[in-house]
Specification:
globular; 8-stranded parallel beta sheet; 15 helices; disordered C terminus
Length: 697
């Protein structure tokens, strides 16, 4: 019996072993059947042994709610695209050191799987730096906590250590979804447009190459992207190790000239990794627009140029900089708007545009379009006007917005130093003596400061042009508060270095350095959860309240209201119209940070509100407004003018006749110099030292 039992056990073990061997063989065989490589001799990509060229489009999962990923990707597939290209913003997943978020809207792998389900390949721009007009180019703000002079994108050990930790988390998640392993990812880009960076450090690029190979092995094609210049290609590329591609928009750089530059650097398939379908918007500038026929004609020109031409349209859908995720430009400092519509083929809300159909028609000349039903635009709904009421001033609500004890410091600390990387901070100082018609100097403001004395507005300081308030009269023991807004970190060029936020140098009254500060990091979302707190007018001096009857007295402040339900009780996409009554601030709906508004500057007037953040009837939908400058409310009682409106269409270009900054010409066929400017390689260290004042500690 024992022998028989042992024989049965041995037989069962052999069967299990045989199954494992067969399964391993099948997996290996399937893997071998899937390949994406380059035939350098024939200058073409080869997919599964067959010459292949792709037409793809950029969509950033961090700018589109996961609720709408399938909708947007399906529309891209229906347009005839082969692939979707997307960035991986490091700060979107590791907002605080060692705390990783890959859930919900942050679920990169689910986005990749959804693309594959729809029928799209994936081109992954994994970073660690992405640019993308995203906050700090994708770098987390906490990188600068201990070392504000860290030299990003170089072999600086203080930079490489957190980069290495991040890649050890990200890349193992990616590997199972590479094309050769059964997934949709055909190409991965370490870094981004490195040729535009001043360092031109090939040792750093080799470090990234080796790190990606360590985790991804030889299972995927690594590539680089750089601007249309020999210098950019030389500094950004790593010949023989990562395939170098080029990026350019419609004219004046001709298709031939740019592809010649690429081919001079490495022979292979011609690739424009960023063919610009539009452009970004900045506060105070004109709304960007590129005509559909221009985009369609240049796309046609590139695809006609050679059979091995591959094109990625940047962007195919731009999406939205929800929350505090917008980046900023430099010279002078200008933050980007909340909308990243980009004048793309798919609008910010995912709608099919004239440009979409023009692109689709062009693609149909070179490949058969998929036989799928044409996706429909989502329904938009005008929820109408919402009456708002004052909830509280920011200073009256400090214990809710900043529930922990304040940080105490002799001199102002930066936002990074107090572990608060985005949004708002209050700096409070109790005056130790009286001043008459004094000058308050806040030269280290990053980026915008609202100054109050005993809770009454004394003026505003701005990073780019006005950092001094004159004529201030105060008494001993008066309370000086400075509410500081981080408007977004610069994400491109050498000005990224030292891009710390808050108050970054000493504050003086006349020539006296003000010491002993209480610093309150603000979490505005907390106000949405505090249903009981209301404004307490007794905290204001009665004389001031009776003599200064302006809305400025009430700001910065929070206002709240309830959004009416749709007639059928369902939820729909909508657009929140902020102008002209509201000046500048932040919007939260049901606690979701919809983004910044600034219709007084323009060009953006409305904020996109996706349906999924609203609750179905009979639940109440709340809207919370943080108005920083001047509310349309001149008393403490509810007023009809203290309202806003939800409409069913976007307004991204401020109406003519209103002050939205000096318009600039629509030369969108030429690449703006702010993105492709040469890297200021001369004396970068001296420039850095000038741009980062030090706290006097």
């Amino acid at each position: 019996m024992a022998d028989a039992r042992n024989e049965n056990i041995l037989t069962s073990s052999l069967k299990v072993l045989l199954i494992l061997v067969v399964t391993a063989y099948q997996v290996s065989a399937a893997s071998n059947e899937r390949s994406f490589t380059i035939d350098y001799e024939k200058e073409t990509f080869v997919k599964d042994g067959v010459p292949f060229r792709y037409v793809s489009g950029s969509l950033h999962y961090a700018r589109v709610p996961s609720y709408y990923w399938r909708d947007r990707l399906t529309k891209m597939f229906a347009a005839g695209l082969d692939a979707v290209q997307t960035y991986v913003p490091w700060n979107f997943h590791e907002t605080f050191p060692g705390e990783y978020n890959f859930q919900g809207d942050h679920d990169l792998i689910q986005f990749v799987r959804t693309a594959q389900d729809v029928g799209l390949l994936v081109i992954l721009r994994a970073g660690p730096y992405i640019c993308g007009e995203w906050e700090f180019g994708g770098f987390p703000g906490w990188l600068l906590k201990h070392n504000s002079s860290m030299v990003l994108r170089t072999m600086d050990p203080g930079y490489l250590a957190p980069v290495g930790r991040w890649l050890s988390v990200l890349l193992p998640k990616i590997r199972p979804h590479l094309y050769s392993n059964g997934g949709p990812i055909i190409m991965v880009q370490p870094e981004n447009e490195y040729g535009s960076w001043f360092a031109c450090d090939h040792e750093y690029m080799r470090y990234l190459h080796d790190s990606f190979k360590l985790y991804l092995h030889d299972d995927v094609l690594l590539y680089t992207t750089d601007g249309c210049s020999a210098r950019d290609m030389k500094c950004g590329g790593l010949a023989g190790q990562m395939y170098a591609t080029v990026d350019f928009g419609p004219g004046p750089h001709s298709t031939k000239n740019c592809f010649d530059i690429q081919m001079n650097f490495n022979r292979g398939p011609k690739v424009n990794s960023e063919f610009y379908t539009g452009w970004l918007d900045l506060w105070g500038k004109a709304h960007s627009h590129t005509d559909s026929s221009v985009i369609a004609n240049y796309l046609d020109q590139m695809l006609k140029y050679a059979n091995n031409t591959n094109v990625n349209m940047y962007m195919f859908e731009g999406g939205t900089n929800f929350g505090y995720w917008n980046g900023a430009e430099m010279r002078p400092y200008v933050p980007q708007v909340t909308s990243y519509d980009y004048d793309s083929p798919l609008s910010e809300a995912g709608d099919l545009t004239t440009k979409y159909f023009a692109v689709q028609k062009t693609i149909s000349k070179y490949k058969r379009l998929p036989s799928v039903p044409m996706p429909k635009n989502t329904t938009k709904y005008a929820y109408g006007k919402v009456q708002l009421r004052l909830k509280s001033t920011v200073l009256n609500m400090l214990s809710t917005l900043s529930p922990k004890p304040p940080v105490l410091s002799k001199y102002p600390l930066t936002m990074e130093q107090i572990d608060h990387y985005y949004g708002f901070v209050v700096y409070r100082h109790i005056l130790k003596k009286s001043y008459t018609k004094a000058t308050l100097n806040i030269s280290g403001i990053r980026d915008r400061g609202y100054v109050l004395v005993n809770s009454v507005s004394a003026g505003m300081v701005v990073r780019e042009h006005n950092r001094v308030i004159t004529g201030i009269t105060v008494k001993t023991n008066d309370i000086l508060d400075i509410i500081v807004e981080n408007q977004g970190r610069i994400g491109f060029a050498i000005e990224m270095l030292g891009e710390i936020k808050g108050i970054i140098s000493n504050v003086t009254m006349n020539k006296d350095v003000l010491t002993d500060w209480k610093i309150y990091p603000l979490t505005i979302e907390n106000a949405a959860h505090d249903k009981n707190l209301r404004f307490e007018p007794k905290r204001f001096d009665e004389t001031v309240r009776n003599t200064v009857k302006t809305s400025i007295l009430l700001t910065p402040a929070l206002f709240e209201g309830t959004i009416p339900a749709a007639r059928d009780g369902k939820n729909y996409d909508t657009f929140l119209k902020m102008g002209p009554s509201w000046i500048k601030g932040q919007v939260f709906i049901n606690g979701f940070n919809v983004g910044r508004y600034w219709p007084a500057k323009g060009p953006q007037v409305t904020l996109y509100v996706p349906a999924h953040i609203l609750k179905p009837a009979p639940a109440k939908n709340s809207v919370l407004i943080l108005e920083l400058e001047s509310a349309p409310c001149s008393s403490f009682r509810p007023q009809p003018e203290c309202s806003l409106e939800f409409i069913d269409y976007p307004i991204l270009s401020k109406p003519k006749g209103t002050a939205a900054g000096r318009p600039r010409p629509h030369h969108r066929y030429q690449l703006p110099v702010t993105r492709r400017r040469s890297a200021e390689s001369s004396e970068p260290w001296r420039l850095l030292q000038k741009s980062v004042p030090r706290n006097k500690l």
